[in-house]
Amino acid sequence: MRLIVGIVLALLVLAVVCAAAWLKPTTVGHPAASGPATLLAQDTDVATVDGIAVPARELQIYLDRDRAATIAHYQAENHDAGSAGFWTTRYGDSTPSEHLIDAALADIARATVQRRWAVTYGIAESATYDSFLTQLRDENTRRRDAVAEKKPIYGPVQYTEANYFQYLQDQYSFDLRDAMRTNGTINIDTGSITSFLRARPDIAAFVRLHAGQAEAEANKMIVMLYTEDRYSALLAQAASAASVARSAALEFVARGCLESGRCITP
User: Fold this and answer.
1) What is the pLDDT of residue 64?
2) Whole-model pTM?
3) d(Cα 54, Cα 129) in Å, to the nearest integer?
């Protein structure tokens, strides 16, 4: 009888231990394959773009940005984004998790190519995410010191990682468009502008709407819109040709964390 009671107690203890282990979030560089609350360490490499490492924290920025569009995509097909298991349920060729990860990686490829171009044109010193984090720390230190010394600053007192990342991307885009126009990569001539306006009737309508402006201002607007269009096309082409290699960590993102939306440690 004592033997039977001992065995039962041992089994109960084992069950409690297993349950606790299953419920506890896992935080490692390459997390365990099971468990509902698996998180990635921030600096875990989840992919590379043309050999440049993509850490989990960069992926998280784009997962956050593309999440709403992914939900809207599946809701347009009458799938309930609030249903249990939505993110890991296969609808057609992919799950919402896979769709979101694909969208995030496509955006990351564009961002990485743009950073690489910024290095080529002497606008940035490095294309790595580590270099960006150094810039972020330096900028926030500068702003904190300026506030302490009661000096004026423009913008936020402190940038978040996601906001400063986007700020730099926007600045790179602006500077690169000018640089590519200067060196002829984006060619501005009458024939190109005419073809552009014919292919983009929406742009032509926009210009007609502002025809009351001085001719020089209207032409400047047309050149700006054409430059943006050509730059976007060149960037999309380069990003599409970029070599994107995924790591095994992405499998855990697809299976374990997108229900809550948070895939990395705080």
Assistant:
1) 93
2) 0.80
3) 7
